[in-house]
Amino acid sequence: MIKIIVVIREEKKSDNKKILLLEEDVLGPGRYARPSFRLRENLEHNAKYSKVYCQGQKIIGSIRYFNCKIQNQNGLMLGPLIVDQKFKGRGIGRELVNKSMSGINQGNINFIILIGEFDYYGQFGFEVNTNIYFTLNVRKEKVLLKKLSEKDNMFSGRIELY
Known about the structure:
The protein has 4 helices and 9 strands; from the N terminus they run E-H-H-E-E-E-H-E-H-E-E-E-E. The radius of gyration is 16 Å and the shape is globular.
């Protein structure tokens, strides 16, 4: 019996091509019309927090983060989170979110935002925040925020990605 090793690890530069192919396969060409993709266009993701889910040498899942700010508060934008269609429904996305968020230093990162479904991301502590907005028009109920500190930070204003 062959044992295939499954591991979640930090993304490497050499993974980029495989991740882009997986992204193309999972999300298709329509992904470029999505506000989340347009906001991240031409920006470099934060490799320190981005992770891949590997089965042997094959990448079957990926999560990326991008640097952002709301006023003077530092944060990360989560996305995209992708899982190979053949492995959907097995908790791989959940594992990627949990593992990647557990490694985020709360000292200088105050929040994580994303554009997504509360029905899924609510389980990770994300909440709808109608006081923050992007430069592009995004439906308010899709803008989700997770505070990383216990401080009573009020997050309001424009979200700037960099």
